[in-house]
User: What shape does this take?
Amino acid sequence: MALRKERLPETRVRIFEDHGWLCHLCKQPIDPKLRTPHPSAATLDHVVPLARGGRDWIANIRPAHLRCNRRKGRGPLARGDRYYPV
Assistant: This one.
């Protein structure tokens, strides 16, 4: 299912809830009360970035802290990579 045009707040919350409000990059809890630009704010990360041919599908989207998502940038995770909060 493509998300770009229908990424409703309910869809975003469902993605976070399905993953237990854990950042898929650092494995630490995400506080749903924090908003950007707070570095620990909740964001959605494309596992395979759109810039590298990833799709805007639920299967390619995971929760991430803003700082972890920015650190990852456009690069996909290498096998075994983990990102830790600063």
About this structure: Residues 9-18 form the longest helix (10 residues). The chain has a mean pLDDT of 83. The longest strand covers residues 42-46. The chain has one domain: 7-72.
